[in-house]
Write a structure and sequence with these properties.
Layout: E1 4-5, H1 12-16, E2 19-23, H2 27-38, E3 42-46, H3 53-59, E4 63-65, H4 67-73, E5 76-79, H5 83-94, E6 103-106, H6 110-113, E7 124-130, H7 134-142, E8 149-155, H8 161-172, E9 179-181, H9 184-199, H10 201-216, H11 221-230, H12 232-250, H13 253-266, H14 269-284, H15 286-296, H16 300-310, H17 313-323
Parallel strand pairs: 2-3, 2-5, 3-4, 5-6, 6-7, 8-9
Antiparallel strand pairs: 1-9, 7-8
Helix pairs in contact: 2-7, 4-5, 9-10, 9-14, 10-11
Amino acid sequence: MATIYYDRDADPSVITARKVAIIGYGSQGHAHALNLRDSGVDVRVGLRPNSSSVEKASSAGLRVTDPATAASEADVIMVLAPDTAQQAIYTESIEANLRPGDALMFAHGFNIRFGLIDPPDGIDVVMVAPKGPGHLVRRTYEGGGGVPSLLAVERDASGKAKPLGLSYAWALGSTRAGVLETTFKEETETDLFGEQVVLCGGLTSLIKAGFDTLVAAGYQPESAYFECLHEVKLIVDLIYEHGITGMRYSISTTAEYGDMTRGPRVINDAVRAEMQKILADIQSGAFAAEWVEENRNGLPNYHRLQKEGAEHPIEKVGAELRAMMPFLSSGGPRPQDVSGG
């Protein structure tokens, strides 16, 4: 069984006795910095002087400095820049400012798992990874709750890395909801797999394939959009709140029978075999190497695929239909508000 920690397991005085540098002020960075500050932690934010986030962080009342200065002042350094930027930031601004007893922290294990960052001996290496986007981490904290987090210790040089991680999670508000103990390896590999196979890659490809099939068969694009995209939220919300069995209880018996008999024909043995190949690419480091190389080459495939996705007919139809439903955008962040940086 998994080990899960709560408020009673964390000592707030551990993190409030430290000086914390938050490197980056994107989706996670702003939530970490603000939640820690409001929990009584000594926080500074490390950003490039020309970063567009400097004004945002300063306006929020946070002290902002460059990454090297932030790292030199702090004894806990949380790296929240995008995965592909972390290695350069570490080499240029953090590595020379690490001292024995410091802790280097992450909210995703990518750079440690695949060896892009290799901290020196004497440094604690810890991960506290909220299982939700930054705006939710912040909003839930302000409402008195918390977003669950994962906790992992890659290196316990001080002998106190785990209590530090739990205390940091307390300051985020995560011990209010639960902190699951894991490893850098497990978090990184399962996170990449979930994104690629189910949450993002699998879901978007399934939606577009369903839309294309109906439109090619002569059905109205608007009908195809509602059936294959719009109603996804209704079903996912039921699964999120009640599990798969609970969702099936809430739908019609016709829909339930179709789910149980036709779903396995779509997600069949061939699809499961491809999932195994994708997992193998993640475990071997092949995906990480591909992604790092893509960035070094200027992201040509990334931008091409992004453009192709934006030009898919489902996007045009969806934009027109969503414009008739302004309530969809109420109370939630716009995509540009939650991007990293």
